[in-house]
Amino acid sequence: GAVVSQHPSWVICKSGTSVKIECRSLDFQATTMFWYRQFPKQSLMLMATSNEGSKATYEQGVEKDKFLINHASLTLSTLTVTSAHPEDSSFYICSAHIAGGKGGDEQFFGPGTRLTVL
Amino acid sequence: RKEVEQDPGPFNVPEGATVAFNCTYSNSASQSFFWYRQDCRKEPKLLMSVYSSGNEDGRFTAQLNRASQYISLLIRDSKLSDSATYLCVVSIRAYKYIFGTGTRLKVLA
């Protein structure tokens, strides 16, 4: 199956710093990637849809100036959490979208990045 | 009302048991349906898509009832390795996926 990697897998940072998370599709090209956030014992919440070569589409309530998304190539999308605060501590997961796969449209998830802001 | 609702569980079942999960969705225009499995502190992995006619993959059977707006997942002959959280996912349009909060399953030896 399609493989998606994320880097780093975990990060601990001080409040006020910015953190960049990379999401790569390793063996396929993805024009669309998604960024999710998951708090403990909660479900994945879509933050934004990242489209290669264009601006990301943010979900309601997600600050685009705080969560910067760049999708400069068909295999790489990045999420930058700017001026991170403790309430941003969460599990951030990306996924790459493949249209018309075996089971129809499919998402392949990266392994996630656990962010802890002190 | 949440767009996708699941019983959070946990469902504690003995090995070999059959267990069923339900998921309801609120948007009647929903187009695609999936079950994902998520292990603790890991990413979700696609278990199976759900087709209108129902579909089976080994010990797993998925059903869709559009009239009542629910999907189900049946696991037969539960294994210890089936212990995980099962996420119901509904696509309401292209590139828009809504995740349920998940149902925790614990299979006991």
Secondary structure elements and their pairing?
The complex is a heterodimer of chains A (about 120) and B (about 110).
Chain A: E1 4-7, E2 10-13, E3 19-25, E4 32-38, E5 45-51, E6 57-58, E7 67-73, E8 76-81, E9 90-101, E10 104-109, E11 113-117
Parallel strand pairs in A: 2-11
Antiparallel strand pairs in A: 1-3, 3-8, 4-5, 4-9, 5-6, 7-8, 9-10, 9-11
Chain B: E1 4-6, E2 11-14, E3 19-25, E4 32-38, E5 44-50, E6 55-57, E7 60-65, E8 70-75, E9 84-93, E10 96-99, E11 103-108
Parallel strand pairs in B: 2-11
Antiparallel strand pairs in B: 1-3, 3-8, 4-5, 4-9, 6-7, 7-8, 9-10, 9-11
What does this structure look like?
- The complex is a heterodimer of chains A (118) and B (109).
- Chain A is an all-beta fold and 118 residues long.
- Chain A is built from no helices and eleven strands.
- Chain A has strands at 4-7, 10-13, 19-25, 32-38, 45-51, 57-58, 67-73, 76-81, 90-101, 104-109, 113-117.
- In chain A, strands 2, 4, 5, 6, 9, 10 and 11 form a seven-stranded mixed β-sheet that branches.
- The termini of chain A are far apart.
- In chain A, 35% of the residues are buried.
- The model of chain A has no long low-confidence stretch (mean pLDDT 91).
- Chain B has 109 residues and is mostly beta strands.
- Chain B is 0% helix and 58% strand.
- In chain B, strands 2, 4, 5, 9, 10 and 11 form a six-stranded mixed β-sheet that branches. A five-stranded antiparallel β-sheet of chain B has the order 1-3-8-7-6, with no helix packed on it.
- The mean pLDDT of chain B is 93.
- The chains are: A mainly beta (118), B mainly beta (109).
- Chain A binds chain B through residues 32, 34, 36, 42-46, 49, 91, 93, 97, 103-112, 114, and chain B through 32, 34, 41-46, 48-49, 87, 91, 94-102.
